[in-house]
Amino acid sequence: MRNDASPPIPEAAEPIDALIAHRLLALRQTQGLSLSELAERSGVSKAMISKVERAQSSPTAVLLGRLAAGLGVPLAQLLTQDEGRETQRLRPRAAQAVWRDPGAGYLRRQVLERGAAGGIELVEVELPRAARVAYPRWSGKPYRQCLWLLEGELQVDYGEERFRLAPGDCLDFGVDRALVFQALGDGGCRYLLAADQDLRPQ
Questions:
Q1: DSSP letters spanning 117-183
Q2: Which of 40, 62, 64, 83 has its CA 20 to 30 A from that of 16?
Q3: What does residue 94 show for φ and ψ, rounded to 5 degrees?
Q4: If we measure between CA atoms, which residue out of 187, 163, 186 comes closest to residue 173?
């Protein structure tokens, strides 16, 4: 298969956009996918994928979710460098990678990267008032997730099932179906997402 190499990333690119660009290109080339093939898998146009790989566009959570689904990898693999990391017992808050969706204002904090503790990943998410984030079904190996709502109200659509969560509620689900997260009520919401990528969803 032909690999489409992107030109060097401009020095003026934002650090997170540059990281996403490098990760997307590396993951696509590792899988031997052309721009056309990833576009077909993800439903994202070749032109947009090329812009992201050149760090010429700040992708939204929805767009990254579609690209991750097309690649069959967790979203974290597009947002963090996971090669060569040493396990750390203490992970100060200041050392945890943070990413904000430029569109919806969705805030994602990578509390624990994949592989740092036996495949467990921990992510803290803040959704602004009325924010809605949709992800397609993953094309790779499905895995389980548990969501613990800390603040606010949240609606989760897991395929055809719909759940409404209040603070303290915990929801177990996978990535084998399309997912939609929507903040309800007058304010936003905050939740902790734990993913175990070594287990298939029940």
A1: TTTEEEEEEEE-TT-EEEEPPPSS---EEEEEEEESEEEEEETTEEEEE-TT-EEEEESSS-EEEEE
A2: 40
A3: -65, -20
A4: 163
Q: For 137-196, how does the pLDDT look when each residue is reduced to its tens digit (9 = 90+)? A: 877 667 789 999 999 999 999 999 999 999 999 999 988 899 999 999 889 999 999 987
What are 21's two structure tokens?
Answer: 């660009």
- Residues written for the chain: 202
Angle between helices 46-53 and 61-71 (to 10 degrees): 100
* 70 neighbors 41 (Cβ within 8 angstroms): yes
Q: Which two tokens stand for residue 190?
A: 């905050």
Pairwise CA distance, residues 196 & 141, whole Å: 12
Backbone φ and ψ for 189, nearest 5 degrees, come out as -145, 165
145 class by beta-carbon count within 10 Å (0-12 exposed, 13-18 middle, 19+ buried):
buried
165-195 per-residue burial string, b: 16 or more CB within 10 A, e: under 16: beeeeebebbbbbbbebbbbeeebbbbbbbb
CA 105-106-112 angle, 5° bins: 140
- Token digits for 144? 């389980």
The 3-state DSSP class for residue 28 equals helix
Tell me the percentage of the chain whose pLDDT exceeds 70: 82
- Residue 21: how many other CB atoms lie within 10 Å: 23
The DSSP bridge partners found for residue 149 are 191
